[in-house]
Amino acid sequence: MLPTEHRLRRREDFATAVRRGRRAGRPLLVVHCRSGATDPHAAGGSVPPARAGFVVSKAVGGAVVRTKVKRRLRHLVRDRLDRLPAGSLVVVRALPGAGAADYDQLARDLDAALERLLGGAPKGCNPTGAVTDGGRAAGPGKPGRDPGGSAQ
């Protein structure tokens, strides 16, 4: 079970994490993370612990399947709370394939998403967040790139 102080409960907190946080998508889930968010409801102005919430829609499966996915995700996040910065808000949204996935597959996708969010800037971005030309900006047949390799 996820400890009470680490649970994300208010709609506003979910919205903050999803709208203002960074996102990392994987085949089975999407993780939204807002690092270092301050909680105006926290007593004494201290930094609250990292908190996590889960979104598992009916697209994942019936009630039994959704509950199983939520329990698995809660357990996985509980074991990874020490990796999350204090005050961060994390929302884990299960995608339709999560209902058929086993525990290890969910763990791999969650670890990959958290690594991308907490391990540094995503590929193709510099630390300021501006997109660099990592082969994505212009592809074959697009302006700005010479598919022949030589300028004439």
From TrEMBL:
<keyword id="KW-0378">Hydrolase</keyword>
<protein>
    <recommendedName>
        <fullName>Ribonuclease P protein component</fullName>
        <ecNumber>3.1.26.5</ecNumber>
    </recommendedName>
</protein>
<comment type="function">
    <text>RNaseP catalyzes the removal of the 5'-leader sequence from pre-tRNA to produce the mature 5'-terminus. It can also cleave other RNA substrates such as 4.5S RNA. The protein component plays an auxiliary but essential role in vivo by binding to the 5'-leader sequence and broadening the substrate specificity of the ribozyme.</text>
</comment>
<dbReference type="InterPro" id="IPR020568">
    <property type="entry name" value="Ribosomal_Su5_D2-typ_SF"/>
</dbReference>
<dbReference type="Pfam" id="PF00825">
    <property type="entry name" value="Ribonuclease_P"/>
</dbReference>
<comment type="similarity">
    <text>Belongs to the RnpA family.</text>
</comment>
<dbReference type="GO" id="GO:0042781">
    <property type="term" value="F:3'-tRNA processing endoribonuclease activity"/>
</dbReference>
<keyword id="KW-0694">RNA-binding</keyword>
<dbReference type="GO" id="GO:0000049">
    <property type="term" value="F:tRNA binding"/>
</dbReference>
<dbReference type="GO" id="GO:0030677">
    <property type="term" value="C:ribonuclease P complex"/>
</dbReference>
<keyword id="KW-0255">Endonuclease</keyword>
<comment type="subunit">
    <text>Consists of a catalytic RNA component (M1 or rnpB) and a protein subunit.</text>
</comment>
<dbReference type="GO" id="GO:0001682">
    <property type="term" value="P:tRNA 5'-leader removal"/>
</dbReference>
<dbReference type="GO" id="GO:0004526">
    <property type="term" value="F:ribonuclease P activity"/>
</dbReference>
<keyword id="KW-0819">tRNA processing</keyword>
<keyword id="KW-0540">Nuclease</keyword>
<feature type="region of interest" description="Disordered">
    <location>
        <begin position="121"/>
        <end position="152"/>
    </location>
</feature>
<dbReference type="InterPro" id="IPR014721">
    <property type="entry name" value="Ribsml_uS5_D2-typ_fold_subgr"/>
</dbReference>
<dbReference type="InterPro" id="IPR000100">
    <property type="entry name" value="RNase_P"/>
</dbReference>
